[in-house]
Amino acid sequence: MAWIYLGIAAAFEVTFALSMKYSEGFTRPVPTVVTIIAVIGGITFLTLAMKTLPVSVAYPIWTAVGALGTVALGAALLGESLSLLKVASVAAIAVGVAGLKVSTL
Fold first, then answer.
1. What residues form the membrane-spanning segments (predicted)?
2. Domain segments of the chain: what residues?
3. How far apart are the C-alpha atoms of 19 and 35, rounded to whole Å?
4. Are 92 and 64 in contact, with CB atoms under 8 Å apart?
5. What pLDDT score was predicted for residue 34?
6. Hey, what's the torsion of the CAs at 41, 44, 45, 47, to 10 degrees?
């Protein structure tokens, strides 16, 4: 169940990052409220995941999956560029996350 909680926490993390961008400096009410809810949701589910998972695994995976999702959706929704260096960097993050997952088996 901890891995499911961690996945939900990561989805909230991506939502948080994107809604913060859409809030335009917290000047738009709806994206601002979504940002606040996403922060609370992300921390809540991360805390639930860490009841079982070690912090040295859960927190880095949470941040990494959040970063990967934000890069992908930033390109898809916001038209941000995906340079070769950015894609290689995201791939390095993905390899690190896989290594953390394997270390818990």
1. 33-50, 57-78
2. 2-103
3. 5
4. no
5. 98
6. 160
Q: What is the dihedral of CA 19, 74, 14, 69, to 10 degrees?
A: 170
Q: Tokens for 70?
A: 């934000």
With a cut of 70, list the residues of the chain below it in pLDDT: 105
Token representation of residue 24? 């335009």
Condensed to tens digits (0 to 9), the pLDDT of residues 41-63 reads 999 999 999 999 999 889 998 99
Write the DSSP string, the chain: -HHHHHHHHHHHHHHHHHHHHHTTTTTSHHHHHHHHHHHHHHHHHHHHHTTTS-HHHHHHHHHHHHHHHHHHHHHHHH-----HHHHHHHHHHHHHHHHHHHHT-
- 27, 42, 57, 98: CA torsion to nearest 10: -80
Interatomic CA distance for residues 70 and 83, integer angstroms: 15
Per-residue confidence (pLDDT) for residue 105, from 0 to 100? 67
